[in-house]
C-alpha cells in the first residue's frame, strides 16, 4: 500500500529496491549452479554408461509385458466381470434399501385406499396423518411421493363430503323413523310404570294398604297378567330387549364428529348438526290438520317428538360437546311451548270424551317417557288440568244426551215389581228403602219411575268416567276426591238440572208426568248421600275430612221440584182455561136449565181425578195446586161476568151461573185435597159469591150504602164505572127510583084529591 501512497518518489524508490533484490537473487542462483555443476556432469556420464543396459532392459520389459498381457487377458475379462457383478450387486443393494424405505409408504397408501373403500374414514384420516408426518418425508425426493402428497388434501375433502352425506342420510332416516323410536320408548316407559305400579300394589297388599280405584282394578289386573306373561316370555326366549336407542345406528354421527374434529372443523360440524336438528324439530312439532280426529294422529305426533328427544338425549350422553345440556333444555322449552299450544288448539276440537281420555293417557305416557330422560314436564301436567275441564265438558254433553234419552223413553209411571227377584234387581240399581212398602205383598209398585235408577246408574258411570281422567296424574287421593265431587256437582247442578228444566217445559208433559217428576226428584235427592258414600269409597277419603266438598244435588232437585210445581199450577190453569173457553152461556135466557153446565161438571170431574193423582205429592204441593186451581177458576168465572163485551144479562142467566158457582163451592167443600183447615178452600170463591149475590138480589142501593165499610155484605165486590153490567144496574136502579117517585107523586095526588072530595 505504501507504494501507492501519496509520498513523493515512493514508486521510484520501490523500483530501485526491487532491482537490487533481483540482482541479489541472481548472484545466489549463479553460486548454486556453480556448486552443483560437477555433479551434473558426473550424472550425465553415468547415464551414458547405462544407456545400453537400458535398451536391453527395455526389450526385456517389452517382451515380458507382451507375454504378461497375453497371459492376463483372461484375468482381465474375469476381473471386469467381477467388477460388473460388484456394480450390479451394489445397485441391487441400493434398490433394496430404497424399496424398503418406500414400501411402508406404499403399504400405508394402499391401506388408506382400502379404508376409503370400506368407508373407514376416521381410520383413513389417521393413516393420512401418519403418511404426512412419518413416511412421506423419508421419500420426499420421489415423484410418486409428490403425487401422493397432492392427493391427500383431495382425499380429506372427499372424506368430509362422504361423511357429511352419511350424516344427512342419518338425519333423514331418524326424521322418518322418529315415530317408531318414540313409540318404542313410550312402550318401554309404560311397561316400566306398570311394573312399578304392580310392585307398589303388592307392597301395599303386604302392608294392608288397599289403595284402588273402582273399575281401574280390572284394568290393573289385566296389566299385571300381561306383565307376567311378558316376563315369562322373556324367561323362555332369553332375548335381550332392545331399547329405543338400539333402533338407531349412530355411527354416522360418531364418524362425522371424529372426522371433523380430526380435521379441525369440529365447531363447523356442531353448528351444522344443531341447525339441522332445529329445523327437524320445527317439522316434528308441526301437527297435521286432522290430528284431532283420531287418537292415532295424536299418538304419531307424540311418538315423533319422543323419538326426536330420545336421539338428542343419546347424543348428549355419548358425545362430548356436540350437544350440551343447555342446548337440549333450550330446544325442549321451545318444543314444550309449541306442544302445549298445539294441544290446546286441537283438543278444543274434540267432542268425544273417549278421544279426550285417550289424549290424556297419551299425554301422561308422553310426559312420563320424557321425564325418564331428564326433561321437565310439569307444564304438561298443568295442561292436563285444562284438558280435564274440557273432558268434563264433553262428558257433560254426552251425559246430557243420555239423560234426555232416559227421560224420552220413561213412561212416568211407578215401577211395577211382580216378585222378590224383580224387587232385588231394582234395589241393586238404586238405593231405595221404604219399610211400609216392604210390608206389602207382591205384586206392588215402587213410587219412582224407571228413569230414577237409570239416572242414578248414569251418575255413577259419570263418576267412573271422571275418575279415569284423574288416574295417573300424580295427584293425591284428596285431590282426586275433590275433582270427582266438583265434576259430579257440575253434572247435577248444570246438566241434570238443565235436562229436568227442559223436560218440565216440554208441551207433551202433562200433569201426571209432572207429578211423577216431583216424586222422582224427591228420591234422587235422597240418593245423593249414597253418591257421596260411593265417591268416598272409591277414593278412600272419609267424608268427615275438613276439605271434603259436598254434593249440591239437594238444591238441584229442589229447584226442579219447584219448577215442576210451578208448571203444575200453570198447566192446571191452562186446562181450566180450556174448559172455560168451551163455556157457552145464553146471557138472555129467561130461566135456567135447573142443573149445572156440562163444561163445569167436566171440569170438576177433571180436577177430582187430577187431585187424586196428587196423593203421592207432599201435602203442601197438593194443597197449593188445589188452592191455585180454585182461585184461577173463580177469577175466570168472575172475568166472564165482568166482561166489557157483555152488555146485559137476564135473571135466568144469573140463576144458571149461580148453579155453576154452587157446584164449585160444593167441590171446594168436599176437600178434594186433604189438609185444608175449615173453609179455607171455599174462600177462593167468596169474591165470586158476593158478586153473584149482588146480581141476584139486585140490591144496588145496599151496596152503595155499605160500600167501603168493614161490615158490608158485598165487601169483596169492587164496582167499576167502566163495567157495562154495573152501569146497567145503576141505570136500572135510577129508572126504578124515578118510577117509585112518580108512583109516590101519583099516589099523593090521589090521596089529596080524595081528601078534598071527602
UniProtKB/TrEMBL annotation:
Residues 17-186 form the Exocyst complex component EXOC6/Sec15 N-terminal domain. One of its GO terms (cellular component) is exocyst. The keyword Magnesium does not apply. GO terms for biological process: Golgi to plasma membrane transport; intracellular protein transport; vesicle tethering involved in exocytosis. InterPro entries: EXOC6/Sec15, EXOC6/Sec15_C, EXOC6/Sec15_C_dom1, EXOC6_Sec15_N, EXOC6PINT-1/Sec15/Tip20_C_dom2. Residues 380-724 form the Exocyst complex subunit EXOC6/Sec15 C-terminal domain. Keywords: Exocytosis, Transport. It holds the Pfam family EXOC6_Sec15_N. The keyword Transport applies. Belongs to the SEC15 family. This is EXOC6 protein.
